[in-house]
Amino acid sequence: MERIYIFDTTLRDGEQSPGASMSVEQKFEVALQLARLGVDVIEAGFPVSSPQQFGGCRLIAEKVQGPVIAGLARAVERDLERACEAVAPAERPRVHTFIASSPIHMKHKLNKQPEQVLEMAAWAVRYARDRVEEVEFSPEDATRSELPFLCRLVETVIEAGARVINIPDTVGYAVPEEFGAFVRRIMEGVPNIDKAVLSVHCHNDLGLGVANSIAAVQNGARQVEVTVNGIGERAGNAALEEFVMALNVRKDLLPFTTGIDTRQIYNSSRMLANVIGFPIPRNKPVVGENAFAHESGIHQDGVIKHRATYEIMTPEAVGRDASTLVLGRHSGKHGFLKRLEELGLVLGKENQDKAYQHFLDLADRKKEVYDDDIFVIVRDEIGEQLNTYTLSYFNIYSGNMAVPTATVRIESGSKRYEEAATGDGPVDAVFNAIDRAIGVATKLLEYTVHAVTPGREALGEVSVTVEIDGRRFIGRGASTDILEASARAYLNSINRYKTAAKETGGQESGRHEPGGQQTTGGESL
């Protein structure tokens, strides 16, 4: 069977999902998991866009072994210079450069003539090839480009040294039969295409990202660009787990193989969801909670008799074969660390100790700790290192005959901010108290809550979406106390805002003077 190379752009295009931005440390943790998953290429970011993006790419290039590490760059010198520098330490560095090729983009975005675009693309590829061995080129908005010009452009950049040509369906406009034919015409219309690997990058605006990727593979593409959980711009990208399992399940029609360890799919999906705060929909193919659940009596009877009656893949194939119940308080540190290793969760010695203490605290409160609880513990432990503000105390007074009132104490380094506020309910009151204590003007857009695991003692996980300075930030928090989880989720969204402000070097226009009492080192100021 022919090999299909998996180019994962979770850390670049995926991170461009509104609210999905990651810190350098979080990107590194996800990159380590992508390497365990077995992806061929990790697109680590867009280095020129910010110091944080550059730092994330550089760290991944230095520390992550196995996959090719790629950095994105426009066809301009500053972009290319930063991308080359960021990926230089990698075992196999790659620069992925692009320029728009459709008439609408060339005219209205670039304000360039086709011949100028040809020259810029060839120059960019040569510049990158002088500095790194592997160069990938993408004609942005390829599916709305004129085919004769697109073929000329592809031929030109291959002559200049590009060894991977990526055809993106940038706006998710194509349908499978059309896209497959488009890829085939490029294969037939570019004389030197045999010197390069043809790749595709399909957006999911019409829900056809995976279908278009499969059609492309059937017509000659040998690299597919995907993201874990299908995250990305707008409606997202082709989902890695769906594309890979489609090849695995339908080998009769799709005689291709990948280097993916499918047993790492479920862990990868859950890790990403916890890091960025995007819950996995229950009906999500392959990794959703309902993917292997059967409620219909007929279906249940069939599965009991033979799983293949209603399951086209096994839970074990995607890494869902671990025992549901994991640990209790008496499991010990060795058992806890062993389970972290089995789940692909890597922590340093200091963070292991902190996570174990967090585990013990949780085991005291709910007695039985599940895998999903452990993912939340590790996410919170990694997140604690990045927090500007932490919740050290809260108290809520509420009832159907009382005005809900909340008091909070927020710490930031050696400083403490204390404030009280009322609200329409206990959750509203604690959010108002946090706003007053920190002095950040926020607008709550979404609030959701769900149980992480079964049972009355389950961790409750809260997800909030807030708007600050016209930008959206998603926060998550978990606790056996849903009000504490709500406070932590709200504070997490504000910490994400603070991180984003630091990355861009921008001013926090949404900030006003804190209304709370400030103390330092236990002393009131």
Distance N to C terminus:
71 Å
Derived from helix and strand composition plus strand pairing, the structural class reads alpha/beta
- Tally of DSSP β-strands: 20
What global shape is seen? globular
Residue windows where pLDDT falls under 50 for at least 5 positions? 509-525
- Overall mean pLDDT: 87
- What fraction of the residues are assigned to beta strands by DSSP? 15-25%
Helical content band: 40-55%
Number of helices: 16
What gyration radius follows from the Cα positions, in whole Å?
Answer: 25 Å
Q: How can the largest sheet be summarized?
A: 8 strands, parallel, barrel
Strand order of the largest sheet: 2-3-4-5-6-7-8-9
Detailed description of the structure:
The relative contact order is 0.08. This protein has helices at 24-37, 51-63, 77-87, 103-110, 114-129, 147-160, 176-189, 209-218, 240-249, 265-276, 297-305, 332-342, 349-366, 371-386, 426-438, 482-504, and strands at residues 2-3, 5-8, 41-45, 68-74, 93-100, 134-140, 164-169, 197-202, 223-226, 256-257, 325-327, 369-370, 390-397, 405-412, 415-422, 443-451, 460-468, 471-479, 517-520, 523-524. It is globular. Helix 15 (426-438) packs parallel to helix 16. The longest helix is centred in the C-terminal third of the chain and has 23 residues, at 482-504. Helix 2 links the parallel strand 3 and strand 4. The chain is an alpha/beta fold. It has an 8-stranded parallel β-barrel with strand order 2-3-4-5-6-7-8-9, surrounded by 7 helices. The termini are far apart. The model is unreliable at 509-525 (pLDDT under 50). The protein contains 16 helices and 20 strands.
